[in-house]
């Protein structure tokens, strides 16, 4: 068994071999962690780029869609989608919902009347312990086809320190590389501005797969169709609107009763793009009303139940699974990065206003 | 006294060595990945749960069956380092999956191990706990990786330089 203690000089070859093995593993781990640089875009890089577009850090706030309110209510399944998916959420029953209404942008004080994009997120937990989280936006399709395109858009829209506006040459180069954004720009320039979160439609632009009890699969996208009739702001009304008009409007409306949206599933047909959120599906696609969301309460996000929730669109119940849309995967990754950063800021006591405390 | 680790100890050692290295690398890769994060997470979590369960079996086996003694001529500091690093490895094999589980719980996420199969939360949903546990999970990953490398270097030193039978006590049966 054990050899006599070695009095030989240290075998250099063996020591070098050990050092080489350990060093190789260490370098491989550092490379895997991205410490040696990366050849592809990462979640932290994308969140860094979003943060860099803000004039200052906003500790404790979401990195995107920073301004918003927590809402709560119920979802009543119609039962009409139960044949498409085994998810309990589609059964005809009532489920508690936690949600958040917000506007796009990284500044939690951004005025509501310049926010082209509004959003609605929800979290529903059914009695089988399964959870469904979704984050939807008012745009009918995503601006670009890929996370790389989104990164390019964030960088191209960065205000030039000299002019305070994005560099036109950089913007033009971005549009040339991602021409689908022209469709989005046309939407942004022409779509009406609803007067309220309540009469805004919110779309899941990413596709998902529904799994039925018989094993069949159906690609869908969903949207929240407001039951509140559409009224739009004239350009003058919008210009004069208060910076926080969406929140005050929401409080007024909720004081008078609940607000409702129908959750509508749009069913893809063969050939519809399921991995490109920048492409709409034909309007003729069959739609199924899966149920109705009823919002009854709102509270400020700093002290509300939605503050510490990551509305990760890949938290899905049995019966719903993701498509291989790279933007969907990237949203999940970026939301996690944003969540980790802001929760650490809260843990370190760096967040004040974001958690409803006075600044020191 | 046995000169080799028993078969269960050896099986668990090599199986867990592969699992722990895989989980560490998957964890390191998924944090930054834009498109593979969810898929990697689907492997990371069940591996973490399996490591926690196997570490408990391994700890029980270790407490019931004394390991072979270290060579009598091993310098005192090396013997102490060996014992300390082995207990540190046990502590990390148990702590790291538990910190991960606690972190996911405190983050308010479902603790999904396999799609549609969740573990219960072991901590209440809380921003401060989540923030610190998420940090701890990252720091412990580096500590575990560094300890594994140290352990590997020492094992190879026994195998190739000292040639004292310590390596073979884990590599094969008596």
Give your account of this protein's structure:
The complex is a heterodimer of chains A (360) and B (174). Chain A has 360 residues and is an alpha+beta fold. Chain A has helices at 12-32, 43-52, 147-156, 168-177, 181-190, 235-240, 245-255, 326-347; strands at 67-77, 94-103, 118-125, 131-137, 202-203, 208-211, 217-226, 259-267, 287-300, 320-322. In chain A, strands 1, 2, 3, 4, 5, 6, 7, 8, 9 and 10 form a 10-stranded antiparallel β-sheet that branches. The longest helix of chain A is centred in the C-terminal third of the chain and has 22 residues, at 326-347. Chain A is globular. The termini of chain A are far apart. With 174 residues, chain B is mainly α. Helix content of chain B is 73%, strand content 4%. Chain B contains 5 helices and 2 strands; from the N terminus they run H-H-H-E-E-H-H. Chain B has helices at 7-32, 37-64, 76-106, 127-162, 166-171, and strands at 111-114, 117-119. Chain B has a two-stranded antiparallel sheet with strand order 1-2. In chain B, helix 1 runs antiparallel to helix 2 and helix 2 (37-64) crosses helix 3 (76-106). At the A-B interface, helix 1, helix 2 and helix 8 of A face helix 1 and helix 4 of B.
Give the strand line-up of the largest sheet of chain B: 1-2
Helix/strand structural class of chain A:
alpha+beta
* Largest sheet properties of chain B: 2 strands, antiparallel
Measured by DSSP, the beta-strand proportion of chain B falls in under 5%
Give the helix level of chain A as a range of percent: 25-40%
Keywords summarizing the entry:
heterodimer, A: 360 residues, alpha+beta, ten-stranded antiparallel sheet, 8 helices, 28% helix, B: 174 residues, mainly alpha, two-stranded antiparallel sheet, 73% helix, 4% strand, elongated
Give the arrangement of secondary structure elements:
The complex is a heterodimer of chains A (360) and B (174).
Chain A lengths: L11 H21 L10 H10 L14 E11 L16 E10 L14 E8 L5 E7 L9 H10 L11 H10 L3 H10 L11 E2 L4 E4 L5 E10 L8 H6 L4 H11 L3 E9 L19 E14 L19 E3 L3 H22 L13
Antiparallel strand pairs in A: 1-2, 1-9, 2-3, 3-4, 5-7, 6-7, 6-10, 7-8, 8-9
Helix pairs in contact in A: 2-8, 3-4
Chain B lengths: L6 H26 L4 H28 L11 H31 L4 E4 L2 E3 L7 H36 L3 H6 L3
Antiparallel strand pairs in B: 1-2
